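Incident log, structure service

09:12 report received: a user says their structure output differs between two submissions of the same chain.
09:20 pulled the input from the user's history:
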Amino acid sequence: MAFPKDFYWGGATAANQLEGAWNEDGKGIACPDICTGGSANTSKRITPEIKEGIFYPSHQAIDHYHRYKEDIKLFAEMGFKMYRFSISWTRIFPNGDEKEPNEKGLQFYDRLIDECLKYNIEPMITISHYEVPFGLTKKFNAWVSREMIDCYLNYCRAIFTRYKGKVKYWLTFNEINSATTPVGGFLNQGILNEIKEMEFMNQVDIPQNRFQGLHHQFVASALAVKLAHEIDENYQVGCMNIMATSYPLTCKPADVLYNQKQSQIMNWFCSDVQCRGKYPNYIHRYFKENNIEIHMKDNDEQILKEGCVDFYTCSYYMSNCQTSDPEKQILGKGNLLGGVPNPYLKASDWGWQIDPEGLRFSLNEIWDRYQLPVFVVENGLGAYDKIEEDGSIQDDYRINYLKSHIEQMHEAILDGVNLKGYTPWGCIDLVSASTGEMRKRYGFIYVEKYDDGSGDFSRRKKKSFYWYKKLIETNGEDLD
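09:34 re-ran on a clean worker, output below:
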């Protein structure tokens, strides 16, 4: 089993989950910087200001800001062809609305990008990855306001210009469709409808704000695509969605229709706009039934049409089932998206059901719908890792998870899907976005950092490190 010769093997991270150095070299406060730690059983909290005596995981994260050379060298040792990472908006524009960028922030990413290129690792940069400047949340509730579009484009212009000739692949928003769910309003869009301390999983939700915010993000994304192509004709700009694969719980027609409706809103609405350049017909009924009215300017539809993305990317971790029976609908353990457990699947330590075949199914659906190059830019297993007496970490459960998904990616390629690359999530241990934990580990590289804030940040290779290295060396032929 071999993959295409130009296939991009790599890994993925996000600035707020690994960099740390939350207030160094002019960086401003981002929304994750006001989120406390949590656990699989307790929700992290959102505090409207930084409070003494409270542990904020993003403030130190895994100290990648000071250790990036060591980390990139380890990625290169595995043989990475691509590294997907994000730029922290508040390193470049600390409050989000400054006219001129912060030079020290730009210089850090100069060094990070150069370190990747030193090892022939292609950077793929996420422009906004769950790290909206908190200054913009306080100023006008972030993406609720159309003013965010100009702030975002000013940020894009700064980084598109600065890194011209060094970066080819860009993603406008991480998991943009998370904003179709209540949690995504703050996580993705920086929207806080009540500026007070609250549980991350129990926020005040106003759907009108989230979907109006999505419209502003759609316009901003389309304008960013056009701007990127104007600055560098070699730039390729993509979208990034959660692929929340779901199945009807039963073959009852009501369950089939309910699943289709849920999938349209969650999986297809945002990418239909970004890939096809217009709002899909099915969304209008949803808006009407939920009292949502999207306010547009006269030329917005033309902007969306002219700013379609060049490629499609997604995260894929799990699948679930949907039922029309409200008494059976639950928000599963560790699952932000709800749904009903599939009786045919096993689950991770955090209750995420493991479904490799669902990835093949999804890739075929994506390719058939859009006919655009596809990347799987997040996939992985969050698990408890144990350091053995000899210092090793025998994470066969992670190897088995990744192996089974890679096998299904290859099947999708044989099906005819134009799959270009794979960057599994958390190639090095980092802070979990959903729970704020370190114990939920994804990486090939173990980081000595723990939920109580202790740890010396030292790195050690897991068994999966050597497995992935061999897999890349053989371009997917050796999966054992």
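09:41 both user submissions now match this output. Likely a transient worker issue. Closing.
09:42 reviewer note: Residues 8-473 form a domain with the TIM Barrel fold (CATH 3.20.20.80). The chain has a mean pLDDT of 95.
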